Amino acid sequence: MGQRQAGGPKLRYKDVIKRHLVTADVTHTQIDSLASDRKKWRAIVEDVVVQTDEARTAREASRQDARRPTTEAEAATHCHICHCPFAALIGLRSHLRAHERRGET
Ligand SMILES: [Zn+2]
User: Fold this and answer.
1) For residue 97, how far is its CA from the centre of ligand 1 (angstroms)?
2) Is 103 a residue whose pLDDT tops 80?
3) How confident is the model at residue 104 (pLDDT cuts 50, 70, 90)?
4) Terminal Cα distance for the chain, rounded
């Protein structure tokens, strides 16, 4: 996500929007006719952008949740400052650096 495959073409913003429109059930043949009605077109594009953004945000949140321990039993360690559970020490170290940056140590 966000990076092109090896040997793949660089995509313009327009190309990405076209791909997203296809995922929102707007076919390539419909694009030209829909684009002739500017108001309708803008509404469609805005909807697609919002849907795509929400889907991306949900995907990122679920990936983030997958990295976090779901139960206290799965937690290998906890932050001594805010008591957040961590499955791995590397996550705890990164979290502690964030506390340091905020001057909370
Ligand atoms: Zn903490």
Assistant:
1) 9
2) yes
3) confident
4) 35
Q: Is the pTM of this model over 0.90?
A: no
Q: How far apart are CA 17 and CA 30, in angstroms?
A: 14
Tell me how far the alpha carbon of residue 24 lies from the centroid of ligand 1, in angstroms: 41
Strand pairing class (77-78; 85-86) = antiparallel
Tell which residue, 80, 85, 88, has the closest CA to residue 105.
Answer: 80
Q: How far is the CA of 105 from the centre of ligand 1 (A)?
A: 9
Residue with tokens 């059930």: 25
Q: Is the pLDDT of residue 91 over 70?
A: yes
Asked whether 95 and 77 are in contact (CB, 8 A), the reply is no
